[in-house]
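INTERNAL AUDIT FORM
Audit reference: QA-55
Scope: verify that the stored structure record matches its stored sequence.
Auditor: D.O.
Record contents follow.
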Amino acid sequence: MTEVELILASRSPRREQILTMLGFRFRAEAPDYEEIIPSGMESGKAPEYLARGKAVSLPGVGAETLVLSADTVVILGDTLLGKPDGTEQALEMLRALNGRTHQVVTGVALAKGGRIVDSGSVVTDVTFADSSLQALKAYAVSEEPKDKAGAYAIQGHGARLVDHVRGCFYNVMGLPIQLTLRMLAPYLELGET
């Protein structure tokens, strides 16, 4: 069997952690892709669109090379919440999420030899507890919200803000496990590459 290389087109430590936990050997490489959502695109479709772009953005991949990519967004009502632009915006997002249910959507794409072979997305409902303004401010000024969609990390101190999750917990971290396993299964076995 030809040796297959797996590349994670992401520098997210959370995605690396999940793939490692699943037993895959891979290398991580930052995608060369500008994340622009076409105007008029439905928020829930954006993550898969962006993941597909990232998966084919790595130059010079071999014919047997698999590239896995993902993109995660937080959607509250009709509003897409990206990564906050500082403490004020983080607090604004956290106040909007406080005591409410929102959706976390992660799009995942797999390319082989530079062409998309599979893609999909997963939605998880996350309900925030009704936290005090003081608790929200304390979290907003921490380092944790900086590079997180929706300004929180469920796997970190942000867990204090969450009342419950309906769906895949790992999707909220940035890589839904069952979808990822389904995509990789035709090409890899655990620990193969």
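Auditor finding: record pair retrieved intact. The beta strands are 6-8, 27-28, 66-76, 79-81, 101-112, 115-128, 162-166.
Action required: none
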